Amino acid sequence: MYRMRDIARKGLTPPVLLLLCLLINIWARWPILMHIDEVFTISWRVCTALVTGGISLVLSLTGLVTLISNQTTLNALHPERTSMLVTRGCFRFSRNPVYLGFIGLHIALALLLSSVIGLMITPFLILLLSILHIQVEEAGMLQLFGRQWEEYCNNTPRWFSLASLYAVIKGRAK
């Protein structure tokens, strides 16, 4: 079981998973893309897609910049190369802000293209990211950081919660 997961992890890195899901979105809605002007007709769907996409892009980029500025690895295939536990910035309200941003970008494109198939495969993207990458990364973090990692997990959700965002905002107000 683990050998199969290791093989899949190498080929299906998080950016590759995102790209595959985005391509499925585009493929599922290819006929509508021939009339691109209809895709961008201003509506609640387009506005929601653009806001979701914008927030998601900022979240992913902020997470990547935070990791880079802390001189730790960006390579999901090698969690053992992590040099420090990053808990500041967007990592205060999500343990996986980059992946959360990837999922948001996928959802934004599905909304923009009115792709029901795109929305339907979202749980599979989440499941694949969780099984192939997050579980392995979190096991590596536990090995590297022990009790510090456990405390971080107890205080920070894997994906996102309004309570964690509220706690961050409330903490800033003090």
TrEMBL record:
GO cellular component assignments: endomembrane system
Keywords associated with the record: Membrane, Methyltransferase, Transferase, Transmembrane, Transmembrane helix
Gene3D superfamilies, alphabetized: 1.20.120.1630
GO biological process, alphabetically ordered: methylation
GO molecular function: methyltransferase activity
Keyword ATP-binding: no
A Pfam cross-reference name: PEMT
Membrane topology value: Multi-pass membrane protein
Principal place of residence: membrane
Localization: Endomembrane system
InterPro entries, per the entry: Phopholipid_MeTrfase
PANTHER family: PROTEIN-S ISOPRENYLCYSTEINE O-METHYLTRANSFERASE, SLR1182 PROTEIN
Record protein name field: Isoprenylcysteine carboxylmethyltransferase family protein
